[in-house]
Amino acid sequence: MTHPIAQTLARGHNRRHGDCHLGLRTGSARDEWVSTAALLGNDEHLPATLDRIGIEIGSARRDVQASILLEAYAWRLVLPLAGALVAEQRVAIPTLHDVALRPGEGRPTELLLRPGRFSALCNDRAAAHHGARPVRTPTALCEIFEETLISHFEPLVVALNRGYGRSTRALWRTIGDRTATALLHAGLACKDRHTSEQLAHQILSGAPPLDVTPAYARILIDDRSVPVHLRRGCCLWWRTAAATYCATCPLRYPVDRAQA
Questions:
Q1: Could you tell me which of 101, 189, 240, 257 has the fewest CB atoms within 10 Å of its CB?
Q2: Distance (Å, rounded) from C-alpha 86 to C-alpha 186?
Q3: Per mean pLDDT, which range of 3-17, 91-105, 133-147 is the poorest?
């Protein structure tokens, strides 16, 4: 029988907003895939991955490479997890051993999830699955989503801070910004932006380290008015060969500007 979270994430491929979908490949890591736990636990994997990112983005600075790695990894993981929460009120609870990437590339372009523990509402048929953690309320689901983000990303934050000079607070802001944007995209893909933004405020407006209150607004991108989250932290993209600010960078759009 297919794992309920695998089913949810497979359906996510059909939930789209622009070029983004809410799906995620599932299965067991093999061949070229390396788990995130192995990436952090091997003295060669992480530096080699950062080296390749540095070549790709045109920056030899380790703090910039670390920032861009976390940006890409967080986006590829959190977007489908946000989609599962918004679309089907299910929360995957992946450990570092459950997520894998291809270390031979630069920035991760795809992740692989081994389905394991997850949470669902008691009235969801999936709650009877042996890997399920049933809860009674959507608020409890949000709490588990937040707990999962903190548990999963904390070792990454520690590794990138200690070894590569990016501050802990900046790294957590990256995770918060990516989560706020992922929930917005999930809401747009599911045609339920109001619910997704409510979830974002529940998950991100509390205590540290995920105290990155979403700042949703509309800005002009390529002469189109686009709903975005105005970032709380800078990803340092302007320090790469691109030498430009991101469309939602706080250096361009201070977060005290108009909300929408």
A1: 257
A2: 7
A3: 91-105
**What whole-number distance in Å separates Cα of residue 54 and Cα of residue 57?**
5
Decide which of 14 and 258 is more confident: 14
Comparison of pLDDT for 36 and 259, the residue scoring more: 36
Cα–Cα dist 94/119, whole Å: 11
pTM greater than the 0.70 cutoff: yes
Nearest CA-CA partner of 39 in 130, 134, 112, 119: 112
Q: What is the per-residue pLDDT for 258?
A: 40
Q: How far is CA 160 from CA 52, 115, 140, 165, 166, in A?
A: 16, 26, 30, 7, 6
Angle 73-15-258 from CA coordinates, rounded to 5°: 70
Q: What is the 3-state secondary structure (H, E, C) of the chain?
A: CCCHHHHHHHHHHHCEECCEECCCEECCCCCCCEEHHHHHHCCCHHHHHHHHHHHHHCCCCHHHHHHHHHHHHHHHHHHHHHHHHHHHCEEECCCCCCEEECCCCCCCCCCEECCCCEEEECCCHHHHCCCEEEECCHHHHHHHHHHHHHHHHHHHHHHHHHHHCCCHHHHHHHHHHHHHHHHHHHHHHCCCHHHHHHHHHHHHECCCCCECCCCEEEEEECCEEEEEECCCCCCCHHHCCCCCCCCCCCCCCCCCCCCC
List the one residue out of 163, 162, 201 whose CA is nearest residue 183.
Answer: 201
First to last CA, the chain: 43
Domains of the chain plus CATH, in order, are 4-211 (1.10.510.40)
